[in-house]
Amino acid sequence: MTVDHHDDEEDPAERKMRFLFQLRSRGVTDPRVLAVMERIDRGLFVRGQFADRAYEDTPLPIPCGQTISQPSVVGLMTQSLNPGPRDTVLEIGTGSGYQAAILSGLCRRVYTVDRHRRLVQEAEAIFRQLGLHNITAQVADGSRGLPDQAPFDRILVTAAAEDPPGSLLAQLKIGGIMVVPVGQSDAVQTLIRVTRTDAGYDYDELRQVRFVPLVEGLGPT
Q: What is its main location (predicted)?
């Protein structure tokens, strides 16, 4: 039997089951991550002509030339970051706000920054709608991080850098973890997990990904 993924009459419970099945089949197995991804409706973060594709496991365009990552990549990055309930997390690249909303259900506080004012404002409106009061979103140059709030237990970068940015590594606590896509912006990139130790930094390669590039400075207002 063929299932029409664009059927507006689809039962929400069936849609949610299919969404979670997609996540599990692509390696998202952490029960805490799955629970929060079941609770946070991705449909709230996808608007306009792509709204009917919100529950597909695919990246989709959002304003300002950015994208909302595919759900399985959001899940795998969150799982790799392994945020704890007492952690403070910095996210570089607010985008639609979906990743920050997922993180907010797993840690004590999320700071998220984006260079595009429009994206920050639209994400903040959704955070208020969902009652997510532990997220602080602001317009800032993500390549510089948030030194005034550092150090962080976890840092998640949702844009690709040629190397893990030194300014962000410096804002990571000893024992902290950063997950960042690394590689040329026009080629396949590698998702890297960096763990800060007393002796320096340990690097683990996780998987191949493709993200928009990490750009210095602020976007046009």
A: cytoplasm
Give ∠ CA 87-71-92 in degrees, rounded to 5: 45
User: What are the residue ranges spanned by the domains of the chain?
Assistant: 12-209
User: Which of the four CATH numbers 3.40.50.1970, 3.10.50.40, 3.40.50.1370, 3.40.50.150 does domain 12-209 have?
Assistant: 3.40.50.150
User: Is 69 one of the annotated active-site residues of the chain?
Assistant: yes
User: How high does pLDDT run on average in the chain?
Assistant: 92
Q: Which of 161, 167, 172 is nearest to 144 (CA)?
A: 167
Asked if residue 198 has pLDDT above 90, the reply is: yes
Closest CA to 156 of 78, 217, 42, 45: 78
Is 92 in contact with 179 (CB distance < 8 Å)? no
pTM to 2 decimals? 0.92
Taking the C-alpha atoms of residue 61 and residue 138, their distance in angstroms, rounded to an integer, is 21
Q: Helix %, strand %, coil % for the chain, to 5?
A: 35, 30, 40
